[in-house]
Amino acid sequence: MGVNPQDAIKKLKVLMDQVDHSSKKSFQNVHQGFLIETLDRFLRARDYDVGKAHKMLVDCLKWRVENQIDKILRKPIFPADVYRSVRDSQLVGLSGYSKEGLPIFAIGVGLSTLDKAHVHDYVQSHIQINEYRDRVILPSASKKYGRPITTCVKILDMTGLKLSALGHIKFLTILSTIDDLNYPERTTAYYIVNVPYVFSSCWKVVKPLLHERTRKKVQVLPGCGRDELLKIMDYTSLPHFCKRGSSLSSRSSAHQGGNNCYSSDHLFHQQLYSYIKQQSMINEPTEPIRKGSFHVTLQASASKSKGAAKTIESEFRKYENGISDTLIELEIM
Question: Is the CATH code 1.10.8 the one for domain 5-66?
Answer without folding.
Answer: yes
